[in-house]
Amino acid sequence: MLESVGALLGSPWIYAVVGLSVLLDVFLPVLPSGVLVITAATAAAAGSGAATGQVPHDVPDIMVLILSATTASVLGDLVAYRLAWRGGARLDRAISRSRRLTTAQERLGAALARGGGALVVLARFAPAGRSVVSLIAGAAHRRPREFLPWSALAGLSWAGYSAALGYYGAHWLGTTWLATGVSVLALFGAGAAAAFVMRRQPA
Length: 203
Prior knowledge:
By secondary structure, the chain is an all-alpha fold. It has helices at about 1-10, 15-25, 35-45, 60-85, 90-95, 100-115, 120-125, 130-140, 145-175, 175-200. Helix 2 (about 15-25) runs antiparallel to helix 3 (about 35-45), helix 3 (about 35-45) runs antiparallel to helix 4 and helix 4 (about 60-85) packs across helix 8. The longest helix is centred in the last third of the chain and has 30 residues, at about 145-175. The chain is elongated and about 50 Å long.
């Protein structure tokens, strides 16, 4: 299994796998898209030779990795947004049955209306936050120009942060599974912090 992972990291297919995982995790938040980005970025750190003293050739390009993850994040948000937009009364009823979703819908609508899309960026780091924000923005029929720029900023922030964790973690700890593990914990920590801040936001 480790050999298969290593072969994938040394192949251009890693960008497609990362992109597909990031795109789909708006519907399946259990997909390890963040772990994949970190793992690929850890391998990319080997390309500089700073972490290992050698310069391997077949490693992911860190900028292409960030671009792939960001693009897939925005596309996934857009798909969920459009599906929710067309969901009609059925989705509205589903949201109205949940006090949490109703509150989130009101809060998101107010934030987008006043141009404060920081909530969209923050939600990108929280577990399932991206899914909730994209679906609620679509269900509330928020205009694309109110949502998509913040979605792009959220995707870039998340992808850049995840890749930086793997890349610099490898420089500091070496390109080992230890570096990947510590970086993943840092990503989960950011998600927990984002969820806490969102819960503490006044209604």
